[in-house]
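Re: weekly structure request thread

Next one in the queue (74 aa):
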Amino acid sequence: MFGLGFQELVVVLVIALLFFGGNKLPEVGSALGKAIREFKHAAAEPDPLEAKALEPLGPQAPTSETNRDREVRP
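Done, posted below.
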């Protein structure tokens, strides 16, 4: 996990406990989890500009045989 061993992870958690306190630590963990989930969700969504470029430009004209064979008269 990011090149951290068990001892390094324990040291980081103890420092976080001292810095934030026991009551605030669950809230910090929850906020961090939500941020990671939102980042993964945003990374998985297509870019709005790319999605718009892939959409058709407008309604397509019918391509039936009768419409193609009609003559245009002024």
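Residues 66 and 72 are 13 Å apart (CA to CA). The two ends are 75 Å apart (CA to CA).
Next request, please.
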